[in-house]
Design brief:
alpha/beta, TIM Barrel, 7-stranded parallel beta sheet, binds NADP nicotinamide-adenine-dinucleotide phosphate
Length: 275
């Protein structure tokens, strides 16, 4: 578990939902996968209004039906909807699709043309009326975070959800230390680089040493740091079980050193990458 700035604890290993609900034939497995994840304690679920045009939220709603109180539910407003009124309306649509009365965390998906003050104002209103419990951002670099926290109400930001995995280490130079110093957890998206890390020889070598899988090594590596939450997506129940077991994998100093050689940490600032 890791603490939000409010002190509330959330699981460090959750589940993503991008590319769920895109194929009818996969639906039963995808719902089973999310439910299994809940059974195994991966109770943070990340979704967004844009995933499968709302269908990922609907599928999530179906998966958590009757279990809403077990879940820390995260969704996101798209930047083109993130005006004062647009955010409130988008949230209401998301709640309907998710068949719930509240989100635990609502994020601005990425920065768009609408002034941040408007989105913050809408988030504050949504909190006042009980439709969301916390708000945060996604794909914000340090300069965006600095601007955000300088605005009235901006200090209430609860997380920054960003791309972070072995092949995308830029945030270690600046964004990650900045967030950790303020007690703001990072939510690492695409923690296994959408599957592209699975065939890597260095990752495989570490996995072999532990009798583990490359996915587990990639996840254990992201989770080696306090204040980092990982949200792998899987619509395959066996993969969800495998991902959950990554919480038991402790990487050694040798493992970390080998992975550092294969995927060097940043030596200077790099612009935040996005997928
Ligand atoms: N804020 C943003 O801008 C943003 C951007 C990207 C992603 N996200 C969020 O982060 C979540 C995760 O990122 P992602 O979906 O891009 O990539 P990811 O979690 O790194 O990788 C997902 C892919 O890996 C496969 N996979 C998962 N576990 C596996 C395992 N144990 N063994 C083998 N294959 C495995 C999945 O296939 P199966 O389904 O078959 O397991 C899927 O193809 C998203 O779903 C979304 O919620 C947010």
């Amino acid at each position: 578990m890791t603490a939000l700035p409010s002190g509330e604890l959330v699981p460090v290993l959750g589940m993503g939902t991008w590319h769920l609900a895109e194929r009818r034939s996969r639906r039963d497995d995808e719902i089973k996968a999310l439910r299994l994840g809940l059974d195994l304690g991966m109770t943070l679920i990340d979704t967004a209004e844009i995933y499968a045009d709302g269908a990922a939220e609907e599928l999530t709603g179906e998966a958590i039906a009757g279990r809403r109180n077990e879940v820390f539910l995260v969704s996101k407003v798209a930047p083109f909807n993130a005006s004062r009124r647009g955010t409130v309306a988008a949230c209401e649509r998301s709640l309907k699709r998710l068949a719930t009365d509240r989100l635990d965390l609502y994020l601005l998906h990425w920065r768009g043309p609408i002034a941040l003050e408007e989105t913050i104002g809408a988030f504050e209103e949504l909190i006042r009326v009980g439709k969301i419990r916390h708000w945060g951002v996604s794909n914000f670099d340090v300069s965006d975070m600095l601007e955000l926290v300088s605005l009235p109400g901006g200090e209430a930001v609860t997380t920054d959800q960003v791309l972070y995995n072995l092949t995308r280490r830029g945030i270690e130079h600046d964004l990650l230390p900045w967030c950790r110093a303020r007690g703001i957890p990072i939510m690492a998206y695409s923690p296994i680089e959408q599957g592209r890390l699975l065939g890597d020889a260095a990752v495989q070598a570490v996995a072999d040493r532990h009798g583990a899988t490359p996915a587990q090594v990639a996840l254990a590596w992201v989770l080696r740091l306090d204040g980092v939450i990982a949200i792998p997506k899987s619509g395959t129940p066996a993969h969800v079980r495998e991902n959950r077991a990554a919480l038991e994998l402790q990487l050694s100093e040798l493992d970390i050193a080998e992975l550092d050689r294969a995927f060097p940490p940043p030596t200077g600032p790099r612009p935040l990458e996005m997928l």
